[in-house]
Amino acid sequence: METKQFKAESKRLLELMVNSIYSQREVFLRELISNASDAMDKMYYRSLTDENLAFNQADYYIQIIPNKADRTLKIIDTGIGMTKEELETNLGTIAKSGSFAFKKDTEIKDGHDIIGQFGVGFYAAFMVADNVTVKSKALDEEQAHQWESTGTEGYSISICDKEQIGTEITLKIKENTEDESYDAYLDEVQLKEIIKKYSDFIRYPIKMDITKSKPTDDESDEYVDYVEEETINSMVPIWKKNKKELTEADYENFYQEKRYGFDKPLKSLHINVDGTVRYNAILFIPENTPFDYYSKEFEKGVELYSNGVLIMNKCGELLPDYFSFVKGMVDSEDLSLNISREMLQHDRQLKVIAKNITKKIKNQLLHLQREEREKYETFYDSFGRQLKIGVYSDFGANKETLQDLLMFYSSTEKKLVTLDEYVKRMPEDQTYIYYATGESIDRIEKLPQTEIVADKGYEILYFTEEIDEFAIKMLMNYQEKEFKSVSSGDLGIDEDSNEETDQGKQEENEELFHFMKEHLSGKVKDVRASKRLKSHPVCLTADGDISLEMEKVLNTMPN
Ligand code: ADP
Ligand code: MG
C-alpha cells in the first residue's frame, strides 16, 4: 500500500473546487454518471478497432446503490476501468482529464460523444462525501486496484478484489450538520429525481432498486414491501429521434413530463441543425399566458443541454424578449463550457443558435397564422401584446421580424386581420391604413370620427389596447402605406364638399362657436364647423401627431 500526497497546488485547488465551483451540490451525481458513461463509450470505441472485443449493448449500464444504514452511495459502471497508473494520473492529479486525452487520440463519430474534458468533475464527490473509494479493474489488467481519499489529505492506492471490468465508486456521505442535510443523497426517491433532472439522456441505462409496496393478496388491505430494479433514465432523448417517428402526442408528453406548463402546447417545433453550430431543439408555443407572464417576476429562457447533459435550466440568451413565451430545450455538442459546466465560455455559438431559432419561431408562427388561424388567434390572445411591445421596444429594430405577426380587429371583416390582408383589400383610391382607438370595439363603433372613413368604404383597424398605437407609430408604415388615425386633422380623403359652404357655415355659427369655446375653455383649443360629420352632431379631433388615446396614456405616465 502506497500513500501519496496531492501536489501542493492540487491541495489548494481541491479545496477551492469543493467549495466554490458548483452552485448546487447535487451535480456531483451528474459528474460521476457522466464519467461512467464516458468509460463505457471508451469500451465502444475500443471495440471498433479491437477484434477480440465485442460490444454487446446489454452489458453496459450504471448502477446506483444507496445504503442509509451505512451512509454510503455506490456508483457502479461496466466501462473501461482504470489501471493503477490511470487511477494515479486521472484521479490523483486535478485538472487531468483522461477523457480529454482519449478524445484527442480517437476519432469520434457516431454520436457516442465523450462528455469529460476538464478533469475536475470527479472531485465534486467531495462536496457530499468525506471519504471516496474507487475500485477499478481496467480492460487491460488482471489485477484490480483501489483508490481511496478523504479529500484534501491525499490518497492511497492498493490492490483489491474485483471480478468485473469497470469501476465501483463508494461515497461515504457526510453526516448532517445543524444547517445542512445530506440525506437526500441516500434516498431513492430524491436520487431518482436528481438523475432524471441531469442525466435523463445518458445513453446507457442507469439502474436503481426501488422499494415499492403491494397488497399481500387480492382481497387483503395489507401491504408488503418489495424491491424492483428500475431504469431511471429515458436514454434516447426525444430530440435525437427521427421526426417522422414522432407524433403530436409524443411532444405533448414531453411538454408535460418536463413541466414546461400546465396547459397543452399550442404548437411544437422540432429542429435539427447540422450547420456551423450543430444543435437540436424542441420548442413549444404554449396555449395560455403564464400567470406571471406580464410581470417582472417572469423569467424567460429554454433549457440548455450539452450533449444530453443539462447545463442550464433557463438560458435567456437563446430567446429575444418578444418571443419570451417560448418553452423548450436546446441541445448542442458545440458549446464551449466553463469548468463548472454551468456557464458558457463564449457566447458566439449561443448567438448563432439564438438567431437561428428566432427565425424558425417566426416562420412557425406565420405558418400557424396562415394555416391554422383559430390556433393563431388563441396564441395571439395570450401573447399578442408581447409582440406589440417587441415592435415598440428597441426603437423599432424588430419591426421587420414582427410586423407580419400583428393582427387587429377590422371594421369590415368583424374579426382580427393581418396588415397584409388589409393592404390587399385596399381600394385603389385609398392612400392610408386607417385606424381608430378606443377602449373597446363597441366604443369605437360609436365614434363619430369613423363615419366618414367607413362611408368611403374604407376598412378601419380598431386599436383597443394602449400599446397598439405606440407600436404602430414605431412601424410608421406597412408596405409603404402610412398609418392614419381617423381622428387626425387631415384624413387624406376627398371630403366632397366645397370650401365655400363650409366657410359659410363657419360664419353663420360664429356666435355659437364663440359661446362654446368660452364654456369649454382650457378643455378644447378650438370649435369649428366640420366637414366630416354625417349623423353625429359633434366630434373631437386631435391636432398634430398624437392622438387623443395616446394623449390619455401619456398623461397617466409618471414624469
Ligand atoms: P473529466 O471527466 O472532465 O475528464 P473527471 O475529474 O470527471 O474529469 O475525471 C477525470 C478522469 O478520470 C477522466 O477523464 C477519466 O479518465 C477518469 N475516470 C473518472 N471516472 C472514471 C470511471 N468511472 N471509469 C473510468 N475512468 C474514469
Ligand atoms: Mg467527468
TrEMBL record:
Gene3D superfamilies per the UniProt record, alphabetical: 3.30.230.80, 3.40.50.11260, Heat shock protein 90, C-terminal domain, Histidine kinase-like ATPase, C-terminal domain
Range of residues in the leader sequence: none
Keyword set, alphabetical order: ATP-binding, Chaperone, Cytoplasm, Nucleotide-binding, Stress response
Subcellular location: Cytoplasm
Keyword Ligase: no
InterPro entries the record matches: HATPase_C_sf, Heat_shock_protein_90_CS, HSP90_C, Hsp90_fam, Hsp90_N, Ribosomal_Su5_D2-typ_SF
Transmembrane segments: none
Keyword Cytoplasm in annotation: yes
Name of the gene this protein is made from: htpG
Protein known as: Chaperone protein HtpG
Chain's role: Molecular chaperone. Has ATPase activity.
Domain of life: Bacteria
